[in-house]
Amino acid sequence: MLIEVQKDVLMRSLQHVIKAVALNGPAPILQGIHIQAASDRVIFTASNTSMTIQSEIQQSSATLNIKRKGTIVIPSRYFFEVIRKLRDGVIVLELETEEKLMLTIRSGHSNIRLCGMAPTEFPYIKREEEERYSNRLQLNHTLFKATIKQVAVMAATSENRPVLTGVSFECNDNHINIMATDGVRLASRTLHIASSSHTNFKVIVPAKNLLELAKLLGDEYKAIEMAICNNRVKFIANGLKVESALIEGTFPSINNVVPRSYLCEILVDRECFLAAVDCVTVLAGDYIIRLAAESAQLKLLSRTREIGDVEHAVPLLEMRGEQFSISVNGKFLSDMLRNRECTSIRIRYAGQTSPIVILPNDSLKSTFFLLTPVRTQYEYNKSK
Q: What residue range is the signal peptide (predicted)?
């Protein structure tokens, strides 16, 4: 293997794949980066078995010149740091022989040699295996990235119920529903597929892998392809490929969870409401805050006996139905309100024991959030 590549292009690929390196993994080879120089591209791959990230650099006179093909796995920690500290310009990567497993890195007056590993056991994405992927569909990059940021954070972090650590994808012909819940809060968004794919599937993807994918998707990507094969899912965008394991199990149904009728519905400014939630949560014991809807305002209250209490009022833009008060987890509520692009939020109250429904006012049909109320041991003085 002998290639010449611009440092900025090389670093971009390494920054992508290094997120999948298994730094504390039991297999030393998973702590490395697989480098494959083909006739027309160089492919960098890292894997922690749950997620595999692959980034390609196409041959170009301006950024990449492939003089000799070859393959090696190189320790990620040292390789990444060495490349990062080299000066800008052309970097030469040379593998003298496949048997020697030594990679020479040259840049300017610098000459570095790193011991490599045999690539035979590395789980990189083989091109011949990509044909097995069926159920392919195209998604708008901007909407998909925003949806993952909104939905995946609602997944559980505890492994007690593995299916709740994932995000459910349910595709039916021309739309796909993306949903996550930890048992207390729930987020759901439906994305339209431009051309009917006549594809139907249900899969659960680890939320942590999707959040890493969202970080990788820069503004240069226009569309993203999703493909399913047995127990794996793959996302493709230009030269970036992210493959993830799927979670086995059945995602809980929400048919009996979403309230069918409401006692009250209010509309508030999103930014004003978020600022109030963050303010009152500061003094909230166990993050528990109380929402009290009156005729013209929504009061937010919290109290910790040893510290003090706080009250914040948010003007109502609309109110239909009876007054109500309910206790919720302020941190969870704040997470739901962030990363929203809407200007106002609609809140629906269905009773003391029913979850409140939160909807971005410009997307009533495609996006909604549920938050289960918290039972408190005391009631706030309503005159406060």
A: none
